[in-house]
Amino acid sequence: MSDNFYTDNSDLKFWIEQAVDWDMLVELAERGAPADERPASVREARDTFEDVLKELGKFVAKNIDPVARQIDTEGTRVENGEVVMSPAFEKVFKGMKKLGLYGLPVPRELGGVNAPAVAYLAGSELIARGDTSCMTHFGFHAGIALSLITYALRDPRSVIKNGRLISTPYDEAIADMISGNTWGCMVLTEPNAGSDLAQIKTTAVDQGDGTWKLNGEKIFITSGNGQYQLVLARSEDPNTAPGLKGLSLYLCNRKNKDGSTNVRIAKVEHKIGHHGSPTCVLVYEDSVGELIGRRGDGFEQMLLLMNFARVAVGFESLGLIEAAYRTAKEFAEGRVTMGKSIDRHEMIADFLEDMHLTIIGLRAICFETAQKVERANRLEQILKFDPPTDEHEKAELERKVSRVKRQARDLTPLVKYYGSEKSVEMSRLSMQILGGVGYTQEYAPEKLLRDALVLPIWEGTSQIQSLMVLKDQLMQGLRDPRRFIVKMARANWKRVAEQDPLEKQLSRLFSYKYKALQTILVKIAKNKLKHTYDLPIGAWTDALFTQWDPKLDFAPGMLHAERLTKILAEVAIARILVKYAVKFPDRRKDAEKFMSRADLRCRHWLAEIEEHGDDLLATLAEKNAADVKSAA
What we know:
Elements: H1 10-19, H2 22-30, H3 42-64, H4 68-74, E1 77-79, E2 82-84, H5 87-99, H6 117-130, H7 132-152, E3 159-161, E4 164-167, H8 171-178, E5 184-187, E6 203-206, E7 212-222, E8 228-234, E9 247-253, E10 264-268, E11 279-292, H9 298-334, E12 336-337, E13 340-341, H10 346-385, H11 391-434, H12 445-452, H13 462-479, H14 481-497, H15 501-530, H16 540-545, H17 550-553, H18 555-559, H19 561-583, H20 588-611, H21 614-631
Parallel strand pairs: 5-8
Antiparallel strand pairs: 1-2, 3-4, 6-7, 7-11, 8-9, 9-11, 10-11, 12-13
Helix pairs in contact: 2-3, 2-10, 3-5, 3-6, 6-7, 6-9, 6-10, 7-8, 7-9, 9-10, 9-11, 9-12, 10-11, 10-19, 10-20, 11-12, 11-13, 11-19, 13-14, 13-19, 14-15, 15-19, 15-20, 19-20
C-alpha cells in the first residue's frame, strides 16, 4: 500500500513538474499583484504547489483511503432537520481544514493562496483516488467560492484594481467556505426538471427591499446541507418569459443569522454509491434569497458554474480510474493460475494495458482542458478590466480570447463525457479482473463501480454533453463549409504524405473525425432536401437555411451524437499526446499505443454512423407524424 498518492504517480508528477505551462498560468494569476506579495519566481510558485500536492498525497493515503469503506458503510441520515454525516467523513474534513486546502485557487486578496485552478484540480484527483464522496464534498467549498467570484466580476458592487478583484459582495460567504467552516451547493434539479431546466417550477418573488422569497422543492442536491446555496428559480411570468428565459439565480443561506432555518432539508437520498456525500431534498417555503446578476440571466449564470464542475468531474473520474487500475494490477500480479500470475495471461494483460492507456489519455485531456479554461477566463478578465491601451494589441487580445474560449468550449464536454463513461467501464473491468472477490465488499471494485455510476449522470448527462458537442460541430461546419472541406482534405492528404509515423497515425484519426461529421451533415441535408422538392426553386434557400424542425431535420445527428463524441474525444486526446510526445520523446510509446487502439475504436464508431439507424429513424418519423395527425 502506497504512503503517498502523489509521489507514487509518475504520470501525474510529469504533468505537474514538466508539462503544465506554469509560466503562463502563474503570470496570469499574479498579473497586477504587488511585487512584495507575489512569488519571487515561477519556479518558487510551482515548488509550492508541488509541496501542497505532496502533503495532500500523504494525507489521502493515510487518512482517506483507509477509511473509505467505513465512510461508505456509515453513510448519511437526517435527524431533527439536520444531516448527520459519517464520523469518519467529518474527521477527514477536519484534517483537510488544518491543511488549509480550500482556499488554494481563491485570490490572495480574498484570503486564498492564489494558485492556478490546475493545482486545485490535481488535488481533487488525489482525493478522488482515496474516496469520491470526499472529493465531491471537497469541491463544494472552493467550487462554490469560485462561482461567487465569477459572479462578482460581473457585479458593479465589486472593487477591482489593476485588473484584480479586491473585494466582492460575497466576501463573508467566500471566507466562510475557504476556511472550511461550511460549504455551498448548486440547486437546480426538481421532480420534473432534470436535464430540461426549462420546466423549473420553483418561484422567486421580489420583495422590493433587495430580497426575494423562494418557494418550491429541489431534489438530488449534492452537499445540500451547505450554508450557501446557488438556487435556480423562476422569477418571470411564464406567459411573457417562458422556459429558460424566465429563470434567475439566487444566493440563499440555509440558516439565518439568528440560527433559524431558511431552507428545510426534507430528507437525504439513499443511493447506490457516494454514501459519504449527502444528496438532499430541499424545501423552500418563503425562503429569503438574494438575486445574483440580472433577472432572467439565471441559466447563463448557472452554465458558468457548471462548466468548471464538468472539468472537475473529469479529474474525479481520473482519480477513481487510478484506484481501479491499481487495485486490478496489484491483484493480478499476485494471483497465480495455470503456473503464472494472471497479469501474464494475454486477456488480462490486454485489459491492464487498456486501463493504463485510458489513464494516460484522460489525464492528458484533463490537464489540457483545465489550462485552456483557466487561460480563457484570465484573459477575458484582463480584456474587461485591464485591457491594453494600444488598439492593435487590444484587437489581438480579443482574437486570442475568442480562440482560447472556443478551444475550452470544445474540450470541456469531451472531458466530462470521456472521464465519466470510462470510470464506469474501467471500474467494471477492475471487478472482472478480480473475479468473484471483486464482487464482494472485501475488495474495492464493487464500491468503485457503485461510485462511478453517477458520474455519467450528474453535471449534465453524457447524452447532454453529446448534444452540446453535436450542436457546436454542426454549427462550425455549416457556418464555414469551405473551411471544413479544406480541413478534411488536409487530414486525408497528411495520412498518406506524413513521414513521421506518429503524425501519420494522428492524421488518420482526424480523417475519421471529418468523415463522421461529413456523413452526419450529408444525412441531415438529405433529410432536409426531401421536404424541399415540392417547393418552388425560389423557396429552397429559405427552406434549407431558416425553416428547420429540430425534431425531424436533425434526427440523424441526434441519433449519432454519442458516437461522434466518442470519436472526437479519442482524436482530441491523441492530438494532445502527440503534442507532448514531440516535446518529450519518452512519451512517444504511450502515444503510439493509445492511437493504435483509438484507430480501431474510431473505425467501429464511424461504420455505425455510416450504416446504422435508417430504419429506426423512419419508424420514429412515422410515430411523430401519427402524433401530429392525432393532435390535429
